[in-house]
Design goal:
110 residues, globular, alpha/beta, three-stranded antiparallel β-sheet
Length: 110
């Protein structure tokens, strides 16, 4: 995350997202939204702070990972609907054609 500039008023989360849009992959293991939120709190997250969730597929379901994290944190979450990439120098974008067309970043509110 050294290349990703922080934004005032936002908490950045970079974690692999499961293709099912409901959970995450951390150190090769499935991780629930609840476990991710606990880790965020341990890492200094303050409830209500907006979240940039850089996690493939996490915004692909209306009631999926991003929405559940938004509800749990009582904060707005921005998340991708398809695979995404954090690049240099701090850019982050959704992968598009020909890999996975049609992805967007969505906003989720509690």
């Amino acid at each position: 995350m050294a290349n990703l500039p922080s934004r005032k008023g936002w908490f950045d989360v970079v974690v692999h997202g499961a293709k099912n849009g409901k959970e995450f992959i951390f150190n090769g293991q499935r991780m629930s939204v609840e476990a991710l939120y606990s880790k965020m709190l341990a890492d200094g997250y303050q409830q209500g702070t907006r979240i940039r969730l850089m996690s493939c597929w996490s915004g692909s379901l209306e009631g999926g990972a991003a929405q559940r994290l938004s509800t749990m944190s009582q904060a707005m979450v921005v998340a991708p609907t398809r695979p995404m990439f954090v690049g240099y120098p701090g850019s982050w974008f959704q992968l598009g054609k020909p890999i996975v067309p049609g992805g967007v970043f969505k906003v989720f509110k509690p």
